[in-house]
């Protein structure tokens, strides 16, 4: 494929398409064997009232201070992450709290993008559509941050 791209593109391979743009749906990933697979470190930044801005992540090493580090796997669901955030955030424990999840990752120019990926309720009366979505289904890549807005 790279050779075809080189011939058509004038000698250079084509860059990969941006995340989530014109990509076919992925097949459902196999579940992770959590006994045999090492977890990843997920840096989670919480904020009441809304998401952090791109500017909050602009300088490496000066990320927002309200960070929680979670060891988890790529098959973790937003419901699992909601329960973990509730352990450390009083605002997330409110009965009517809504949590909005966003991935934070660098674009091709090195600027950070904040992309909303799903919402859950702190104590849902019924199953929410995003509860069962996993990090891998949402195209999380190791090294991305997770920004959680608590409303």
UniProtKB/TrEMBL annotation:
Q: Where is the composition biased (Basic and acidic residues)?
A: 27-36
Task: Write out the ranges of the annotated region (Disordered).
Answer: 1-36
- Per the UniProt record, one Pfam family is SAP18
Coiled coil where? none
Q: Which organism is it from?
A: Camelina sativa (False flax)
Please state which protein family the record places this protein in: Belongs to the SAP18 family.
List keywords of the entry alphabetically: Repressor, Transcription, Transcription regulation
Q: Which domain of life is it from?
A: Eukaryota
What is the purpose of this protein?
Answer: Involved in the tethering of the SIN3 complex to core histone proteins.
Q: What is this protein called?
A: Histone deacetylase complex subunit SAP18
Q: Does the keyword Repressor apply?
A: yes
